Amino acid sequence: MDRKFLHLAILIFLPLLAFCSKKSQLTAFEENGIYGYKDQNGKVLISPQYSMAYDFNENGVGFSFSKSGWVCIDPKNQILLNVFQFDNGPDDFSEGLARFVENSKFGFFDPSCNKIIAANFDFAYPIQDGFSKVCNGCESVSDGEHSMIQGGKYGLIDKKGTIVVAVEYDSISEVDPETKTVQASKAGSKKEIKLP
Q1: How far apart, in Å, do the first and last CA atoms of the chain sit?
Q2: PANTHER family, alphabetically (predicted)?
Q3: H or E stretch including 172?
Q4: Which uninterrupted H or E stretch holds 48?
């Protein structure tokens, strides 16, 4: 086969392959105060049933508000996970991960709604400087408008979910990005912990 013809065929075929493999991006629409989803041609694929909905992202998933709170759905309207609600919307992504809740425990997921870190903690703070502060035995206490996390034992995980500081401290500071350390306290005693 002529090399020029082969190169031309590849140049024509690659964009076509990229176009065909692009994930379906559904658009949210509102009807009588309830949201559903339409495809690029305006055909209704998910009938109106949500109180709020965002357009599907480039990864082919959408975030919608249902009776059970914020959920991540696929184009077949299957719930992939329950997203942690933050500031009246789905949790924001921080360093590529956001929080989900499963059986009252927190974990992390990626923009395709794949669960990356299992839901093993009573609370988890957003990823910051490559780590998340987590706690067990803690609880959310509301003051009416806001809530705070109180009690329990704290530790630190990395973006893969590996525990890098045991979940056994009464408190733990934010990561100091310059020294890669945290300050932790237990039973009135404080110490500095160097991170990997």
Answers
A1: 54
A2: DUF3298 DOMAIN-CONTAINING PROTEIN, GLR2918 PROTEIN
A3: strand 171-172
A4: strand 44-50
Distance CA 183, CA 24 (A): 46
CA distances from 123 to 55, 59, 126, 134, 140 (A): 28, 27, 10, 6, 8
- How many Å apart are CA 179 and CA 182, to the nearest integer? 9
DSSP element (H, E) containing 184: strand 181-186
CA gap 39, 68 in Å, rounded:
25
The answer, yes or no, to whether residue 12 has pLDDT greater than 60, is no
The one-letter amino acid at 132: S
Q: Which long-range contacts (CB under 8 A, 24 or more apart) does 43-48 make?
A: 45/75, 46/73, 46/75, 46/77
Task: Note the pLDDT tens digit of each residue in 160-194.
Answer: 999 999 999 999 999 999 999 999 999 999 999 99
Could you give the CA distance from residue 75 to residue 80 in angstroms, rounded to a whole number? 11
Name the nearest CA neighbour of 91 among 121, 113, 60, 120.
113
The token duo for 150 is 């109180």
Dist CA 128 CA 110 (whole Å): 15
